[in-house]
């Protein structure tokens, strides 16, 4: 039994179904829950956009506040650090004579690099480090293939996984947490992060608020208050309103709720109200999310290069600043693209249907470097998730997991099909 351990929270900001937290509690006499506001997350990327924009930053701060409250109810608190994790975490290790740090396992290049730097500094202090997978529906160890042999076509992955793998049960939240006397630290304000608070536009599909409590409220609303889950497959391509889709993605991205929690709640819903193609489809979407994470484990840095996982495929490297600005600001020749881009700019959110169309337009009609569009999404999206964002953009650009190789959307046809009465365009273009 270890005397003192750190639980380093990252994008797993919850106390329910959090294996990292529970494992640390089982193996230690007391724990120190920490979150490090990584300064690199608030800098500019090489594409000229902020790595984290104001919508996602505000959502993060709300999620941290909620996690802090939850931990305090269990007898602990959340220690907020600010700076470089590899500098700040070792300070706490030294101060409290910490013997082990537990954290969520990372899969993307930058995040893994940070994890490695922290590990190297901890090694110097004779402090152990253990990373635990907490982000996926299916555990990587339970898949019917190794990471290296996962098929590059989603359908092949899905069929075999559904048939041969099981989803592990959720882990109950702890009832008590023992911690040493911890310093009272403050969650920074958005201005302290170098950002301005952007008031959410009243036309937003939802008044998104970060935190596990809000995630569970949203789940309850979508499943039980409205029973919207029962018609999800028919409505998921909607553009206007709160309930055409689940809108779980911002909470999933920060780990305010786990994919497994959603899965088992779907199963509970099915026992109460019956299963149909809609209840299955939500699980299907969670599998897509898993798939992109596993693809990142398999292909690593390839998703960040122009040719993606298609090796030497020649892609556009056009960086025309005027075309990019027109796309961002909704000044293109397509009213459907403009409406979607204005929604993203003013709310930090856009429907799945919208995302596919604006990405296709960016890549295929403006012929711009797809990575620039991806980087803008990284800044803007309240639900930014590294593997889903870069994986989906690569897919649309024809350098990812699309077996057809090139996905070209007829924007006018899409607008007529999904916004026949121009309700969406009239909402955002007035």
TrEMBL record:
Pfam name, any one: FAD_binding_7
Cofactor(s) listed: (6R)-5,10-methylene-5,6,7,8-tetrahydrofolate; FAD
Keywords linked to the UniProt accession: Chromophore, Coiled coil, FAD, Flavoprotein
InterPro entries: Cry_DASH, Crypto/Photolyase_FAD-like_sf, Crypto/Photolyase_N_sf, Cryptochr/Photolyase_FAD-bd, Cryptochrome/DNA_photolyase_1, DNA_photolyase_N, Rossmann-like_a/b/a_fold
Domain of life: Bacteria
Coiled coil: 57-84
Domain Photolyase/cryptochrome alpha/beta: 3-137
Entry note: cofactor: Binds 1 5,10-methenyltetrahydrofolate (MTHF) per subunit. Binds 1 FAD per subunit.
Its biological purpose: May have a photoreceptor function.
Homology family: Belongs to the DNA photolyase class-1 family.
Protein name: Cryptochrome DASH
Native source organism of the sequence: Flavobacterium nakdongensis
Lineage: Bacteria, Pseudomonadati, Bacteroidota, Flavobacteriia, Flavobacteriales
């Amino acid at each position: 039994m270890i005397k003192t351990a750190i639980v380093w929270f990252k994008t797993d900001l919850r106390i329910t179904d959090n294996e990292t937290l529970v494992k640390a509690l089982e193996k230690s006499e007391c724990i120190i829950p920490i979150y490090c506001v990584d300064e690199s997350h608030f800098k500019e990327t090489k594409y000229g956009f902020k790595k984290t924009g104001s919508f996602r930053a505000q959502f993060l701060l709300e999620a941290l506040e909620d996690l802090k409250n939850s931990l305090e109810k269990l007898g602990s608190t959340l220690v907020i650090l600010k700076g470089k994790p590899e500098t700040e975490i070792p300070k706490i290790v030294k101060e409290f004579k910490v013997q082990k740090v537990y954290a969520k396992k990372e899969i993307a290049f930058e995040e893994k690099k940070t994890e490695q730097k922290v590990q190297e500094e901890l090694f110097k202090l004779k402090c152990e480090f253990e990373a635990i997978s907490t982000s996926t529906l299916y555990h990587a160890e339970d898949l019917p293939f190794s990471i290296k042999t996962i098929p590059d076509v989603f359908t092949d992955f899905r069929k075999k996984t559904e048939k041969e793998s099981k989803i592990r049960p959720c882990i109950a939240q702890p009832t008590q947490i023992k911690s040493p006397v911890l310093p009272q630290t403050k969650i920074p304000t958005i201005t302290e992060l170098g950002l301005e608070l952007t008031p959410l536009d009243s036309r937003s599909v939802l008044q998104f608020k970060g935190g596990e409590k809000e995630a569970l409220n949203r789940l309850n609303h979508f499943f039980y208050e409205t029973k919207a889950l029962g018609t999800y497959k028919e409505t998921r391509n909607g553009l206007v309103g709160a309930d055409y889709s689940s809108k779980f993605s911002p909470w999933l991205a920060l780990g305010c709720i786990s994919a497994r929690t959603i899965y088992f709640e779907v199963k509970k819903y099915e026992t109460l109200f019956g299963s149909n193609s809609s209840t299955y489809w939500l699980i299907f979407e969670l599998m897509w999310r898993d798939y992109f994470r596993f693809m990142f484990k398999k292909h690593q840095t390839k998703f960040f290069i122009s040719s993606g996982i298609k090796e030497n495929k020649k892609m556009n490297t056009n960086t025309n600043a005027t075309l990019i600005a027109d796309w961002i600001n909704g000044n293109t020749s397509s009213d459907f693209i403009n409406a979607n881009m204005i929604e993203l700019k003013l709310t930090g959110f856009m429907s799945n249907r919208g995302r596919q169309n604006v990405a296709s337009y960016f890549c295929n009609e403006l012929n711009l470097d797809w990575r620039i569009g991806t980087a803008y999404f990284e800044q803007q999206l309240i639900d930014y998730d590294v593997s889903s964002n870069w994986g989906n953009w690569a897919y649309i650009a024809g350098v990812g997991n699309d077996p057809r190789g090139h996905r070209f959307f007829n924007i006018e046809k899409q607008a007529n099909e999904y916004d026949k009465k121009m309700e969406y365009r009239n909402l955002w273009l007035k």
